[in-house]
Amino acid sequence: MIRDGIALTRFKRVAKVIVQRIQDVLNAQVYVVDDREIIVASTEVELIDHCFDAVSNLRLPFQVGQQRGEVILCELDSDEISSRLAQVMVELILNQALSIAHQPLQPELKNKFIHDLLRAPSRDESEVLREAQILGLDFTRPRAVILIDAAQFLLSCPIKPFEMLDVQTQRSIQVIIGSIVKFFHLPNDTICAYIGGSEIAVLKASSTQDLEAWADQKDPAGNPSWANLAALKRASTELLDQLRSQTQTDLSIGIGRYHPGIQGLARSYQDARAALSLGHHFSGENRVYCLDDLGVAAFIGISDESTKIDLAKHLLSPLDQEPELIDTLQVFFAENCYPSSTAGKLSIHRNTLSYRLDKITSLTGLNPRLFDDAVQIRLALLLRSFVNSHPENETRLGSCTIPERSNSLHLVQLPNVVSR
Asked: In terms of domains, do 59 and 153 share one?
């Protein structure tokens, strides 16, 4: 598959150059078609990928590897230049352009490979690993996705392959990628690729050793899917500062969790993209976003149920060894967050209740006395309770196991979250 991709990419690359160079010297409409008469490059860009059916003045065959095609000129101004001279000029341009076929294509191929890996992750893993090896990409290390939105720096965000972008946009992309690689120092540490629109993806090695420079002894270990996320956030925040300083434009970063296996990279990308989209909507640009920092927005904005379950477990994981605190929260919410009635139900003093709530805040970073934090905790408790009572459904979360409307805030009965 990758060899076919190389051949097709080389052919299109040459075709684009042929059209551009002929357009510079001749007043004519220029088309390059493949062996099926499908237009792959043209001065009439809206006709690309359509079948050629116009009257031509000149047709010249050429071949790139095993891929055959033709250069076609239409509406040639015969008063300006003779057909014979036009043919000679086209042949000269064609010979020059064919030399491009021998130049390396790794950046373009790498971009397409990463694009397909993150956005269409249904391919066989062994095949993906073989192609990665051909491209010199190391997927033996655990990696998480850092997604950079560079819309302001790239100005326009064309949905095109890298090789079809204008030169200035390509240079802008290379500036950002070069800065990223320099920031993380080691070439194998980061795999960077432009994946279309305004997105640049960084597949960052994310083991504890890889993130040692940004680690903190207070960082929780927890689930492998969330482990080292705090260090990854610090690294991304420093990276964002560097990129903004270098580009002098607004940028934002979304962080995905680590998920095992090659297919896990697509899940990490979805995490990062969701965090970036929700973060932009609620908080604007120039920030680093991660699902566990988005508060209630993450629960109501994410459509993937398994991600919401993971997030709920992650938020409550510091309380896994504190069943007394879980019980306290359940009663606290059942009593509409009234301290007096909660303490009465639990048969404890209000000072003891206050101590427990403070401990919950210390362990989770979420204060049950504050409305937004209380909503997050309540939703997390509901989701975790559902999975615990229906464990067979945890592997079927893509279906209608949990109704979509269960995400709405009307389920959270927190009318007055204040201390009384």
From this structure: no
